[in-house]
């Protein structure tokens, strides 16, 4: 009898872990779908840098150098510096709106020449 109880608990754990994984994936993909629907409804005015590609942007990882970003994405449309708790952050802009409206924002933040953050989001104005 105890053997059945033990295997039932194992089965319940496996099912719970799989359900959690599936739920997490669905939640993450829902945001992507919502972004695409909003861009479809409101229109897309995104202007990208000359050599930009979604695949290269997605593949560029935190910890990459500015040289890697240039190699894979080319130069940004523009860049600017901001102070973050007395640390200088350089922000490279790979996309912007050509009419201050709805667009796909693609930014990379560098600290001391190393990528520390990547922003990939839809902006609806």
Secondary-structure topology with pairs:
Elements: H1 2-42, E1 46-48, H2 54-59, H3 66-73, E2 78-84, E3 87-93, E4 95-97, E5 103-111, E6 114-123
Antiparallel strand pairs: 1-4, 2-3, 3-5, 5-6
Structural class: alpha+beta
Distance between the termini: 63 Å
The tally of beta strands, per DSSP, is: 6
The number of helices is 3
The low-pLDDT segments are: none
- Shape call: extended
What is the name of the CATH topology of the largest domain?
A: Beta-lactamase Inhibitory Protein, Chain:B, domain 1
Return the string of H and E elements: HEHHEEEEE
Strand numbers in spatial order across the main sheet: 2-3-5-6
As for the number of domains, it is 2
The profile of the biggest β sheet is: 4 strands, antiparallel
Strand content: 25-35%
Using the coordinates above, name the CATH class of the largest domain: Alpha Beta
Percent of residues in helical segments? 40-55%
Determine the mean pLDDT. 83
Secondary-structure arrangement, i.e. CATH architecture of the largest domain: 2-Layer Sandwich
Give structural notes.
This protein folds into 2 domains: 1-42; 44-125, 2-Layer Sandwich (Beta-lactamase Inhibitory Protein, Chain:B, domain 1). The model has no long low-confidence stretch (mean pLDDT 83). The protein is of the alpha+beta class and 125 residues long. The chain is extended, with a radius of gyration of 21 Å. The strands form 2 sheets. The protein has a 4-stranded antiparallel β-sheet. Strands 1-4 form a two-stranded antiparallel ribbon. The protein is 44% helix and 31% strand. The protein contains 3 helices and 6 strands.
